[in-house]
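User: Could you check the structure of this?
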Amino acid sequence: LKLKLCVGHIAAALGACLSDLESRMPFPYDASYKSEDVVKLVNAIAPHWKTPAGQVPDLDVAKLYETLKRIVEQIRKVEKYETVDKDVQALLALATATSWFSEEQTTEIDEWLEEVASPEEEDWMKNFP
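Assistant: Sure, the predicted structure tokens are below.
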């Protein structure tokens, strides 16, 4: 019984520690249009998306905006971008749902989201992964 209690306390402490680490994931400002980079950005934003910018550890809104912009510019260079990228959609939807960006930046992020959600091909749904 004592061993079970001890293991339970260790598991609870480990869970709290992991949760704390997740909430302090650094923002990968050097991210590019690679799946793992997009996922890292989503994971960095997600725990804080309802938190005011000034209360988010290590958040540099200007750098984050430039990172998002760079990713969208890289997508624009992809030849035959015909597949809807759900990870990028999630990233941009999460970013625009925060209160971190100026009105102008938020409008631009919304435009980027529309752009990546609407590939040129009319029958894009068949390509939806």
